[in-house]
Amino acid sequence: MIALAAGAAVGLSAVAAALAEKEIGAAAVGAMAEKEELFGKGLILTVIPETLILFGILGAVLILRLAGG
User: Fold this and answer.
1) How would you label 4-43 residue by residue, b for 16+ Cβ within 10 Å and e otherwise?
2) Alpha helix ranges (H) inside the chain
3) Which of 17, 37, 43, 64 maximizes the CB count within 10 A of its CB?
4) From its phi and psi, is residue 68 left (phi > 0), alpha (psi between -120 and 50) or beta?
């Protein structure tokens, strides 16, 4: 059960990051089609949701450490 909880923490955060990146990426490509100078901002905004996965990994580590696994 502990391993399932840790896996769910990482897996669900990865799914949430993927959904966020999909939306942001589509908007960024649309904005870059109109103004090419928005490439840098679009790239940075597309990478930001990856921090959600880091939070999921941190949660999994805490679950495993606190449970004694």
Assistant:
1) eebeebbeebeeebeeebeebeeebeeebeeeeeeeeebe
2) 2-34, 39-47, 50-66
3) 17
4) left
HSE-up (13 A, CA, CB side) for residue 14: 8
The dihedral formed by the CA atoms of 33, 30, 54 and 5, expressed in degrees to the nearest 10: -150
Which pLDDT value is given to residue 27? 93
Q: How far apart are CA 13 and CA 9, in angstroms?
A: 6
Report the distance separating Cα 58 and Cα 49, nearest Å. 15
